[in-house]
Design goal:
Number of helices: 14
Strand order of the largest sheet: 1-2
Structural class: mainly alpha
Helix content: over 70%
Shape: globular
Length: 349
């Protein structure tokens, strides 16, 4: 029996330490991701729950509890979808532990999630409401759930490279999808004038700009501004444009350190917000400042290189090095010729 499906003292939570990485993060991720929506559906809850079930390591129980709690928070908004998600997760909890450890378990995960999500969605739709367009939406929704479950499972299996900061492109994209789901789950979560989604977006755009430069920061800004809502409305497109331009302009000041990045990001976002969305300028300013504070407090490696110091041109330096190398070669040839001549003179009678 899988470890997460039993509460025996030998395998339960009492024997494991409540660590930040092993238990706290899966719970928070499950809580936020389960609230994420896309095109009017909630595919992230099923995808992340299925990935946790197949992953089956420490923190899985609390992660699933977070998924259930996040899904339950949507009762007042969309009760039929919540019941459908809970029923799908219940059935998957009986099937997915049996395929763990088998060959091509990722493919089996995709097929299982797609199949059961589609079956339950068709049953929920009802035979009396059969429509071709609605049927195609159910098929797309099922495939989307299966694809997202693979991405989440891949990200969970590659957590160590993320914590160490040495991750590949595929691992970074997988965790970027998780970040998009988290931002989607934070949409509408407001405390006074603090928009948690804006705080999170601010921090990660600055983080990417500091690590990878303007191109990556612009791409992340566009994705975080557009994908969490995935709707072709003016506000969503403006958010994508604002965060994309902010990421690109901020990354250009990568060498100026955190203060340069922070000032550049604050200036660009406030300029575009004041012009395009002046009604949310005050809340945008407060939330952005909170994100900046978190970014400043986040520990990062310090680059001690003085980029303002005058450096020789690469072409000139390369040419000088080549000339020195050729001169050394000719010197060695001359020394060898002189040594040979001396030996010949000594050998003569």
């Amino acid at each position: 029996m899988a470890e997460w499906t039993t509460l025996k003292p030998k395998h339960g939570l009492r024997r494991e330490r409540l660590t930040l990485e092993g238990h706290f993060w899966p719970f928070v991720l499950g809580l936020l991701i389960a609230r994420g929506s896309m095109l009017g559906y909630y595919p992230f809850a099923i995808g992340f729950g299925a990935a946790l079930m197949l992953y089956g390591r420490k923190g899985t129980i609390l992660g699933l509890m977070g998924v259930l709690l996040g899904t339950s928070s949507l009762f007042m908004e969309d009760l039929p979808s919540v019941l459908q998600i809970l029923l799908t997760l219940l059935i998957l909890s009986l099937v997915l532990p049996r395929i763990r450890g088998k060959k091509r378990e990722g493919l089996l995960l995709f097929l299982t999630v797609t199949l059961f999500t589609g079956i339950i969605a068709f049953l929920a739709m009802g035979w009396g409401k059969w429509e071709l367009l609605l049927s195609w939406e159910v098929v797309v929704f099922s495939l989307l759930n299966g694809a997202i479950s693979i991405i989440f499972w891949y990200a969970l299996c590659h957590q160590e490279p993320l914590w160490s900061g040495n991750f590949t492109r595929e691992q970074g994209i997988a965790w970027l999808v998780i970040l998009v789901a988290i931002v989607s789950g934070l949409q509408g979560v407001v405390l006074g004038k603090f928009y948690f989604s804006v705080i999170l977006i601010t921090f990660f755009i600055l983080f990417v700009a500091q690590r990878f430069g303007p191109g990556a920061a612009a791409g992340v800004g566009i994705m975080l501004g557009f994908l969490p809502q995935l709707a072709l409305n003016p506000l969503n497109l403006m958010s994508a444009g604002i965060y994309g331009m902010a990421g690109f302009a901020t990354g250009a000041f990568q060498r100026l350190g955190k203060w340069g990045l922070g000032v550049a990001y604050l200036g660009v976002t406030l300029m575009f917000t004041a012009y395009l969305q002046p009604e949310i300028l005050s809340s945008q300013l407060i939330s952005t400042l909170v994100g900046l504070v978190i970014f400043f407090l986040f520990p990062t490696s310090i680059n001690k290189e003085d980029f303002l110091k005058e450096k020789p041109l690469p072409e000139v330096e390369s040419t000088v090095t080549k000339v020195k190398t050729v001169a050394e070669i000719f010197d060695q040839i001359a020394y060898s010729a002189q040594a040979a001549e001396v030996e010949v003179n000594k050998s003569k009678p």
